[in-house]
Design goal:
Blueprint: E1 3-8, H1 11-19, E2 24-27, H2 40-53, E3 59-62, H3 71-82, E4 88-93, H4 98-109, E5 115-120, H5 127-134, E6 140-144, H6 153-156, H7 159-171, E7 175-178, H8 187-193, E8 197-200, H9 215-236
Parallel strand pairs: 1-2, 1-8, 2-3, 3-4, 4-5, 5-6, 6-7, 7-8
Helix pairs in contact: 1-2, 4-5
C-alpha cells in the first residue's frame, strides 16, 4: 500500500486532509516554491492542532528552497522547523556541485532531528548524492520537482530511473517517496513503482496547487490510491 502525503499550509487544511484520509501531513507554503517553508509560528500552530485532533498522525515540514551550498542557512532553518515538534524535516537537495551536496547530506545526517532529503529531479537525478544519502541515517529519501508548471515527475524522469531510485532506497532500509505535480491519472504509474509514499498538493486543490485544499479531492485521491492498490493485489492473487 502506498501511503498518501498531503501538503497543507493552514490549520484548516491540515484538519481537512487528516479527516479525509491522508496518511502523512506535510506542511509547506506552495506560493513560495516547490519546498516553500511556513513560518515557525504557523508550523507550531498546525502541529498543535493535529496532535490534539489526530494524535499519532505523522507530520513533516519543509524548510524552504535553498541551494546545497547555503549550509548555514539550511541548518538554521532545520533547527527552527525541528523545534516545532514535527516528526520529519524535509530538505531539498538541489543546485551546487556534487561535493557540496554530499557535504550538506553529512551535516543533515548529524542533526538531532529526523531529516528527509528531497532530491529535485527537473534536471535529472544525482545518484552519487542519492548513494551517499543511502549510507547515512535518514529515515526516508524523496524525489520532487521544482517547476510545477513543467509537467509531472513522470515527464521529468524516466520510469526506469524512478524504479532505480525506489529499489536503491528500499535496499538501504529506508522509505522511498515520490512527488511532483502528481494527479489521479498517474496512479497506475505510481503503483507500478510502488514507493512507500506519494506526495500530493495540486491534485487536492481547486484550480492550481496554490488554491484552497478541498475535502472531496483529498478523499478522492485517498480512495483511488487504496482502491487501485487493492485491485492490483486481487489480480495478483
Amino acid at each position: 500500500m502506498i501511503a498518501m502525503l498531503a501538503s497543507v499550509r493552514t490549520v484548516d487544511e491540515a484538519l481537512i486532509a487528516a479527516a479525509a484520509g491522508a496518511d502523512f501531513i506535510d506542511l509547506k507554503e506552495p506560493r513560495s516554491g516547490a519546498l516553500g517553508g511556513l513560518r515557525p509560528a504557523r508550523i507550531g500552530e498546525i502541529v498543535g492542532a493535529l496532535h490534539q485532533a489526530h494524535p499519532g498522525l505523522p507530520i513533516s515540514a519543509t524548510i524552504g528552497d535553498h541551494a546545497a551550498d547555503e549550509v548555514d542557512a539550511i541548518m538554521t532553518r532545520v533547527a527552527e522547523v525541528g523545534d516545532c515538534g514535527v516528526d520529519y524535516v524535509k530538505v531539498g537537495i538541489a543546485g551546487s556541485s556534487p561535493r557540496a551536496r554530499n557535504a550538506l547530506l553529512s551535516r543533515l545526517a548529524a542533526a538531532p532531528w529526523a531529516v528527509v532529503p528531497v532530491f529535485i529531479a527537473d534536471r535529472g537525478l544525482d545518484f552519487e548524492a542519492i548513494e551517499a544519502a543511502c549510507g547515512l541515517p535518514f529515515p526516508a529519501l524523496m524525489i520532487d520537482t521544482e517547476d510545477k508548471g513543467g509537467g509531472s515527475l513522470f515527464d521529468c524522469v524516466p520510469a526506469t530511473t524512478l524504479a532505480q531510485f525506489v529499489h536503491r532506497v528500499r535496499a538501504a532500509g529506508k522509505l522511498a517517496g515520490l512527488s511532483g505535480a502528481l494527479r489521479l491519472h498517474h496512479l497506475p504509474q505510481l503503483l507500478a513503482l510502488a514507493p512507500d509514499f506519494a506526495g500530493f498538493r495540486g491534485a487536492l486543490c481547486g484550480g492550481t496547487r496554490t488554491g484552497a485544499l478541498e475535502r472531496d479531492k483529498v478523499r478522492g485521491v485517498a480512495v483511488a490510491l487504496r482502491g487501485e492498490a487493492q485491485a492490483v493485489q486481487i489480480c495478483a492473487a
